[in-house]
Amino acid sequence: MSPYEEAMDALSSLITARIRADRSNKGDQFDVMFDYLKILDLEEPISQMKVIHVAGTKGKGSTCTFTESILRNCGFHTGLFTSPHLIDVRERFRLDGVEVCEEKFLAYFWWCWDRLKEKTNEDIPMPTYFRFLALLAFKIFAAEQVDVAVVEVGLGGKYDATNVVQKPVVCGISSLGYDHMEILGHTLGAIAGEKAGILKKEVPAFTVPQPSEAMTVLEERASELNIHLQVAHPMDLSMLNGLQLGLDGEHQYINAGLAIALCNSWLQRTGHLDTTYLDQNKCLPEQFVRGLTTASLQGRAEIVHDQFISNKSLGQLVFYLDGAHSPESMEICGRWFSLAIEEENQQRNSLNHHKQEISSPSHDSPRKQHTGTSIKSSKQILLFNCMSVRDPHLLLPRLINTCASHGVHFQNALFVPNISVYNKVGSHTSPPTDSRVDLSWQLTIQRVYENLIQFAKGGDAKNTEPNSEEFKEENDKGIRSCENSMVFPSLPLAIKWLRDSVQQNQSVRFQVLVTGSLHLVGDVLRLVKK
After folding, report:
1. Hey, CA dihedral for 187, 193, 198, 199, is it positive or negative?
2. Would you place residue 210 in the very low, low, confident or very high pLDDT band (cuts 50, 70, 90)?
3. What are residue 513's DSSP bridge partners?
4. Residue 356's pLDDT is what?
5. Is the pLDDT of residue 28 over 90?
6. Position with higher pLDDT, 524 vs 309
7. Helices within 153-285 (DSSP H only)
8. Radius of gyration of the chain (CA)
9. CB 300: neighbour CB atoms within 10 A?
10. d(Cα 169, Cα 345) in Å, to the nearest integer?
């Protein structure tokens, strides 16, 4: 086992039961975080750190990414802490836009680990997984003496491990919606109350346009703290001088608007901003434009061509990855996917038409003209999984209906368990891949999907069961098939099925939307990227 794998095994030992709101043990009390800061000598460094703290349901990771990219392009030494990671845990810790190297990660990891192991006890137990990662982020940023630390809240706000920051320079709250309701509450007001827990006295706060129920709670909390909650409006495309945002999707203009406001406030409050430097309503400084247009974030509106397929079929299997996992983000994801494939298909058709014109300037026969340049038809496939705390009855209709409204209909849906296992960290860990894996949750999602499709076709929704004929045909591989969907016992099997389908249908371009879970997105990236 390598030194890095040893660290991943140690980190895995901190993962607690999947019930994240469990308050039955002392380690779950938020105040213990301050004991950890003392043990790690982080109280003073955090009080001096120039932090931008961002909470929200949707878009907080994108907002943090834009914010870090802008300030890095302004010449500052940046630290960025986000979650979750997709492939490697080091993705969560970025210095100047690059994930922390393995050597530094291991040095800081064991420094924190050894101190905590030595000083913790029954009353102050070892921190849980995310708390340890947050403490490690603050250690890395303090030791590396970053000019600015952009910190994304993990879950909620008030009791999140990142909320040990008592005096950030500025706070932001991105779009709010329904997610983690088993922990944060079942109304937008309750969820907003948790997120507003990061707001601090005398610290400027920004948000984006919100549903009235959420906005009322945010404004009340801001009023209690005697701060003015300012609303950052979506960025106007014209401010980018003809360029595009580095992160794809219409919703990113909302996140970019919030990032601009946060950077502007940070620059002013830290004494780096000439008052004439930025007028958000007119034009953006070159550094802001560069930061916004070069920002990148894996697994959010990302398009990846399968790199392990034969050259002959290269480009015929394309994955559209988005870690959407709330009803609102499902709608945004569906709109992005529909517009992305429409644009791509138009480009391909235009290219093929151009090739035909070049290859046949004379009056050749139609058959000759089309040789080797036939326009490929495309097939849309859904590859989906979500955590069992989420409701597929809320997620799938928003996705399917949004796609349908843009004329996009999935020819097949594939449901899989994640490769990532919840009690292990690191790419060297893998779950069972045989047919004995528990697929009860995936079969539940499949039934919801089949009923939706049946209803959309004008039939009565019913408790759909796998088609017995198809089930027998695929049973040796543990695949459960229905009329419009399949459940695979593992993701690698589903990817193999897609690759085989491409080889068998050379004239068809497979466009696969991967969504419902950032864990699933990370697992797919690990399998299709070289």
Report:
1. positive
2. very high
3. 320, 382
4. 59
5. no
6. 524
7. 181-184, 188-195, 212-224, 252-269
8. 25
9. 26
10. 46
Instruction: Identify the band that residue 156 occupies on the pLDDT scale cut at 50, 70 and 90.
Output: confident
- Distance between alpha carbon 99 and the CA centroid of its chain, in Å? 16
Q: Is the peptide bond before 84 cis (omega within 30 degrees of 0)?
A: yes
Q: What angle do CA 479, 304, 327 make, to 5 degrees?
A: 70
Contacts of 63 (CB under 8 A, 6+ apart): 54, 56, 172, 174, 255, 258, 259, 262
Give CA–CA dist 89/94, Å, rounded.
Answer: 11
Residue 460 backbone dihedrals phi, psi, to 5 degrees: -90, 135
User: What six digits make up the tokens of 122?
Assistant: 């029954």
Residues linked to residue 53 through DSSP beta bridges, in sequence order: 151, 171
Q: Which amino acid is at 266?
A: W
Q: Report residue 305 as tokens.
A: 């061509």
Query: CB-based contacts of 479: which residues, under 8 Å, 6+ apart?
Result: 486, 487, 488, 489, 493, 497
Which residue carries 């690059």 as its tokens?
98
* Residue 439 · residue 427 · CB < 8 Å: no
- Return d(Cα 403, Cα 395) in angstroms, integer: 13
pTM of the model: 0.85
| pLDDT one-digit tens code per residue, 299-349 | 989 999 998 876 666 568 999 999 998 888 899 999 999 999 998 877 777
Predicted local distance difference test score (pLDDT) of residue 457? 82
The tokens for 366 are 């139609």
Residue pLDDT, tens place only, 73-93: 999 999 999 999 999 999 999
SS3 assignment for 5-51:
HHHHHHHHCCCCCCCCCCCCCHHHCCCHHHHHHHHCCCHHHHHHCCE
Q: Look at phi and psi of residue 377 and say left if phi exceeds 0, alpha if psi is from -120 to 50, else beta.
A: beta
Q: What are phi and psi of 200, to 5 degrees?
A: -130, 155
Query: In which residue are the tokens 């301050």 written?
Result: 34
Beta carbons of 4 and 103 less than 8 angstroms apart? no
